[in-house]
Design brief:
Layout: H1 8-11, H2 21-33, H3 36-47, H4 53-72, H5 82-86, E1 90-101, E2 107-119, E3 128-137, H6 141-147, H7 149-154, E4 162-167, H8 171-180, E5 185-188, H9 190-206, H10 215-225, H11 229-241, H12 246-257, H13 264-269, H14 277-291, H15 300-314, H16 318-363
Parallel strand pairs: 1-4, 4-5
Antiparallel strand pairs: 1-2, 2-3
Length: about 400
Amino acid sequence: MKVGFFPLDDQLDLGTGSLTPCSQDHLVHLAVWMPFEKAVRMLERLTGVHTSEATARRQTYRAGEATLAVQQAPSSDLAPTSVDAAHPSKMIVSADGAMVPLVKGTWAEVKTVVVGCVESKRPEELAVSTQLSYFSRMVEAQTFTEQASGEMLRRGVDQADQVCAVMDGAEWIDGFVDWQCKDAVRILDFAHAAEYVSEIGQLAQAAGTVLPHDWLSVQLHELKHEGPAAVLREVRNLRDSHPEGEEISKKVAYLEKREARMQYPQYQKAGWPIGSGIVESGNKVVMQARLKGAGMHWGPVHVNPMLALRTTACNDRWDETAQARQALLAAQCLNQRRTRQSERYEHLVFRLQIGLLLLQTRSKPQPSVPKVLSTPSPHAKASRPAATHPWRRPLLAKK
């Protein structure tokens, strides 16, 4: 089938394919929340537009790549929403990583940062994180830190009066906080610290130490309401009781190194959350809900485009980002048409030049070529017998 070109396509903002821009946007929006096959069926059910799963996949990846380009462009500062413009006095930042399945049975880490506002109606109530927004990418730590700057600036983290960073002990998260909000109050996720305390107790019991049945709950209550001092003394005693236990020593050293980040009574009194549940749920909301379905495996080049679309949808910025995305796609389509037009023009000029050369060649008179007579070779044998040959003698004379 030949691909045609219509001059009104540019004026009507029509892209490639049989779907209108509105149908393409609906299809991509559905494919962000559900598998491609279900998105196709849902589009037909809601709008009566029929298309194929391959088209849904192709259009979604194309829109994702455009969204990725818009978000990464330095001059693409999207207009902040009313929530973004508020710049609350207390904000929370929490980052973490989760694994995504890739093709050929491999896995890769998707890093996610969640930015939110910290609110508490009464001093005795626990702090609540609200107005959450997400940023996710499958990239190296330094690249992720740089690319997440747009979301951090948009949310006004640099202008907030107070910022806390609730995180686990991963080194790349420390580097992220150093880059984005160096003065943030750093809090070790309470569940993460509790897991280390629990593992130390289990290793000590496996080594022969008898602990009370409520040992863990007592230690965690002490850690949460009194601070880490007594808990660290307890785990040091277990370490000293089993000097051969290397794992116990490593885990105790891990907690000792982060003692300043386990002052949970002070954090709660200041109105800060002590858990990183917002980023744990962020991993599920942004990445796992769409990219870790049963039997799903993704090509590495398709993960970030899907994450760009997922964060756009989860941040309630779909319509806003769609305008910039469609403008970019329209510009790309126009460039492709101009490129094809230029190639066709060059091809026609080339054919015209070849035709002129052939006409010129045919119109010129052809010079006559004289015949060259061949000279017999001196070594060539005579074709007839000589006069003295016996065959030349009369028959009666032969004796």
